[in-house]
Design goal:
About 45% of the residues lie in helices and about 20% in strands. The chain has about 270 residues and is of the alpha+beta class. The chain has a 6-stranded mixed β-sheet with strand order 1-2-3-4-6-7. Strands 5-10-9-8 form a 4-stranded antiparallel β-sheet.
Amino acid sequence: MRNGYLTELVFINNLNGKKFCEINLLLQELIQTLYPKIKKKDLITAYKYEKHAKVDVVVIVKGRKKGLSIKSGSKNSVHLEKNDKFINYLKRNSFKESEKLLKYLYSDGTANNTGVIRMSSEEYKKDHQEEIKEINKELEKIHEILIKRFLMQTDVNYRVTVDAIVLGVANDFIWATKEEILKYLCNKKIESTGVHVRGLFLQNWDKNLKYNPKYEKCREYVQVKWYSLFDDIIIIMCERNKCFENKQADSVEYKKKNSAFTKFFKFIWSS
């Protein structure tokens, strides 16, 4: 059984059937942000969501559903989609550089994966910077809807969308809400030689440069990676913590309840 699936099951076990006052402090911080009016004795339900969705765990409090995307490990892959489906989606949103993007993904001189000589990403980027700049210019025009598609899944087929991304394991994790992530990434501008949407990078799932039949189908998928996932969520959490402290600076109740979570991230940010 894969580690990610086990992590999801532990999250569910730590939430399902528990009263809010019974879960650990880290989970309380997360759940209270998603449900600001939750009370100590409110019951929490949690279950594993269906396969192949952005949402891994669904949480229910008083009939209201929230979706959690649980990330563990260091691969930082956040989206995988067939090339043709993705290109059709881009075209529906007035994207004008489909052929150049396909050539970038295949890196074999063609837009239909029929080239004989395949190049690595670094080789292709070295000789095609002008084309990559044109691709990025077009992607930038629709960056917000792409961030939502890559991270939160807004397809109509999905009844629950991601309300928060959680990185880590059940008793040791960091997290950010969809609103925080969207705001942060929409304001994040970077310089890069690769194809990207703000801090999210597009690439071929596997270029299969050695023509291994086992991996040939991977060439037909676009993969999106969030390389700075950990760092970005840490920044988001520290900014949230600063805002909360500013609002609660004079609150006696806050000073009494200043959590281990808050102290921990103060240490992380200052070290």
